Amino acid sequence: MYEIYRQSLIKEMELRGYSPRSIESYSKYLLRFLNFTNKPIDSLVPEDLKSFLYFLISRKLSTSYINSAYSSTQLFFTLVLKKPFSLNDVPRIKSSKKLPVVLSRSEVDQIISATTNLKHRAILMTTYSAGLRVSEAVRLKVSDVDSNNMQLHIHSGKGDKDRYAILSHQNLLLLREYFKVYRPTDWLFPSGANSSMHLTSRTVQKTFKASTLKAGILKPVTVHTLRHSFATHLLIAGTDIYTIMQLLGHTSIQTTSIYLHLAPSKVLSVISPLDREVSDFE
Q1: Where are the membrane-spanning stretches (predicted)?
Q2: Number of structural domains, the chain?
Q3: Which domain holds residue 48?
């Protein structure tokens, strides 16, 4: 019923250079909105979006999910329907300012050790050791592993940007062990059901949850917690915030600066100029 409008949104987003991942997710959000309203397209008004957002909030979905649904519908109104869209009429929900949960290094080791499946253990270690988003980890290809330069090539990360990530020596050893057993040819972590497809993010999330419970860790964590932990552990070890920003693929230092709040001991260990000898400016 609404497929033609979904395709129209996809076309408009492709013309504007949106990443394939954004196009896929936004088109899904749009279908959910249209199915929720169950109205003829020409009768849609901003009030329908308000009702949809209230529905998502009542389902206790994340702020990022709700705002992504908001953005997809906003694009649909403005680009496809050519209708005015006022931010005053439909405000965007404010993002939560809560600090993310972080695992200690020993907790990370416990989770990885509790993962008995070799492929699953390899992808969890890769996610942590390189600070990857789960969507980046599952899309790694065999050719992305550069053992000569000890780096991983991340293609089309968030914002459709490429970058290089760390390939740790321990991770490389496990990947070589994994490779000998599974012999992947294209995707580094192919689906067990269809080797032409990569593992899904949902599979990795389920694996992580099961391993977390098995390790006896009760913190409210997800696979993305491994990425937060990677950044925090680097900061505590003395890595500067700008290097961490580049490794994570952030475009703004403001995004990365949240890790300063997660490692207060690192910030507060700085010696006050009152307690050290400082040369005067000339």
Answers
A1: none
A2: 2
A3: 3-80
